[in-house]
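Example record

One chain of 144 residues, shown exactly as stored in the release files.
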Amino acid sequence: MCCDTGVTRTEEQANALAAALDIDLDDVGVCWACLSFVSTALEGGDERDVRRTSARIARDLWAEGLALPVQVALERARRRELPDAEAAIAAVEKAGPRAPIVQAIVRRLAADLTRRTREDLARLGLYSRRDAEVRALRPREADR
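Predicted structure tokens for this chain:
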């Protein structure tokens, strides 16, 4: 485990690699409604809930077609010699959607979906910086 966050080094590596991958929400062709469950968990801030939801949704998205875009993105990362790409490829070959990199990619795509939704709502005048500030001030489940 790293520090007091409960995040392992493997998860940190997976998150860093997922952030660097050439993979886009529009290109993966997965269910955005499914991703919204992960987005909601991320918004809640409970790391255990995020892990649990990411693991569950990763399996569903993998079966729906996430496998190929992940494999292509990881191969590109290996060619670009990104750190941990080779290990991530091996983990995906061994564990499929249970690999830490797949769950990190699902979390990244969910965060991308949240960002995009907020941008779209702001463009329509339905979401403001003030909304984000009020949401951040609400007590989180873990704080209760």
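Notes: The helical segments are 9-20, 25-28, 32-44, 47-79, 85-95, 100-123, 129-137.
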